[in-house]
Specification:
Elements (H helix, E strand, L loop, with lengths): L1 H49 L5 E5 L4 E6 L2 E2 L3 E3 L2 E3 L3 E2 L12 E9 L7 E4 L6 E3 L6 H10 L16 E2 L2 H10 L5 E5 L2
């Protein structure tokens, strides 16, 4: 009976010790994250201010998010085509065999006849761009997004060959709002 109590007490102490260590470790992780977030916010703000009189797109590869700025301000609560758009939005990036390019670029083409729902091509060398799902599933996704505005399909996993993929409702919105020569910044991991 005494050995059982000692064993229970040891297990409780070990569990408590493990909890304290994990809390300290997560606190240290957050402390490392704060400077990265401040740096990221500063880079995004600087880029948005550099082009404050026009739209800009910023993609964070680490956070898998796309930010859309209009006249230096992040777009929030914008109603269009039956949806409300709040940026940033989730993105899918290159799969493990490919790489999404980084740095400053711009939208150099709009293709509504690509193999994707819509395609905003980027000025990087290669066939990189921002797009939605394959056209073969477009009608299905339109129905699902009307039923549930938070429905996700494209952004569930990284599965592009280097492009930035967004949900269909988002690419339709961006395609209608974005002009050619819109600056794009893709921030590394």
């Amino acid at each position: 009976m005494i050995n059982l109590k000692k064993s229970a007490l040891i297990i409780i102490c070990l569990a408590f010790f493990a909890f304290v260590l994990s809390a300290l470790d997560s606190q240290a992780g957050r402390e490392k994250e704060v400077p990265r977030l401040l740096y990221f916010k500063q880079k995004v703000w600087e880029f948005a201010q550099k082009y404050r009189d026009q739209d800009v797109i910023v993609v964070s590869k680490k956070d898998h998010l796309l930010y859309y700025y209009r006249n230096g301000k992040l777009v929030r609560n914008d109603k269009w085509n039956g949806f409300i758009y709040n940026f940033p939005v989730k993105v899918s990036l290159a799969n493990k065999y490919h790489r999404t390019p980084e740095g400053e670029t711009y939208v150099d083409g709009k293709n509504n006849r690509s193999r994707y729902t819509l395609f905003l091509s980027l000025s990087n060398p290669g066939a990189y761009g921002i797009h939605g799902a394959a056209t073969s599933v477009s009608r299905y996704l339109d129905r699902m997004e009307k039923k549930d505005p938070n429905f996700t399909f494209v952004t569930k996993k990284d599965d592009t060959r280097g492009c930035v993929a967004v949900e269909n409702r988002v690419i339709k919105y961006l395609f209608s709002k974005i002009d050619l020569k819109t600056p794009v910044l893709i921030i590394p991991d």
